[in-house]
Amino acid sequence: MFVLIGSGPGIGSTTAALFAAKKFDKIVLISRNAERLGQERKTVIERAKQAGRDVQVKTLAVDIADSKALQDALSEVRKFGDVEVLLFNAARVQPSPMLETSSDTIMADFKVSLASLTTALADRKR
Prior knowledge:
Elements: E1 2-5, H1 11-22, E2 26-31, H2 34-50, E3 56-61, H3 67-80, E4 85-88, H4 103-124
Parallel strand pairs: 1-2, 1-4, 2-3
Helix pairs in contact: 1-2, 3-4
């Protein structure tokens, strides 16, 4: 199974679609935006069908900065199958001028980019 944490337009959903078209029968897309996840799910399925493949795509709308919510989502992922590839593509993309960024903003960035990655990697050992 291919799992994408931080699904979104561009690199994330394009990579998931490529993995679905080439090899993986199960794909999991994780992102905060439930509406966009629905569209990305359709895109992955369409790309796989174009390649003559049927895939199952599970979507999970999760704020990965919430470590408990991410842990719960990863428990759901394990019920879907064994993770073979985990692509961590999450990031907060906002301008943050040096010495003008609040500590709250820095902590939010830290939670998304590093703390959630640590949670996901720790989960892989289960």
